Amino acid sequence: PGVSCFPVSPSRTPSMRIAGLPVDKHDQLDVILDIKGNPSEEDLAFINDPKAEKYVQNFGPKTKKPMKDLFPEAEPDALDLLEQLLIFNPYYRITAKEALRHKYFMSIRDKKLEKEGTEIIKLLSDQYANDDLRGLAQMIVTKIKTEQAGN
């Protein structure tokens, strides 16, 4: 799998530049695109930052690979879940709640033990406007370094 995911967890040893940004050849997005192929224009429509869109479009041509070829022993339900989890556009991607209710998990679910959270989780990204990705990335890097220094 990928070893980094720019800009959230940038590579410590970037080996190339995509759209002028330092990334590793095993960037998580690159690994996903190697499997899923390049996103369509419709898939890219949710991106509202031209730099981010250019970044995604500059990974080079990628052709979708059938999940069955990559995981020949996997059950059809597992392949279906994986396909739904790796949909590029978050508006079309399966949610965590939907994923946990997927047919793949039916044999191990115990609805009596399930408890749904009631609190809203505040993400770091909620503190930044969409146009301040550099500020968000810097805050994440600083937080990671601070936490690593404490361990």
Beginning-to-end CA distance, first to last residue: 25 Å
Helix content estimate: 25-40%
- Multimeric state: single chain
Q: Give the number of helices.
A: 7
What is the C-alpha radius of gyration, as a whole number of Å? Answer: 18 Å
Q: Looking at the structure, what is the overall shape?
A: globular
Query: Spans with pLDDT under 50 lasting ≥5 residues?
Result: none
Order of helices and strands: EEHHHHHHH
Strand-residue proportion: under 5%
Could you tell me the number of beta strands? 2
Describe the protein in words.
It is built from 7 helices and 2 strands. It has 151 residues and is mostly helical. Strands 1-2 form a two-stranded antiparallel sheet. A hairpin with a 2-residue loop joins strand 1 and strand 2 (21-23). It is globular and about 45 Å long. The two termini are 25 Å apart. The model has no long low-confidence stretch (mean pLDDT 83).
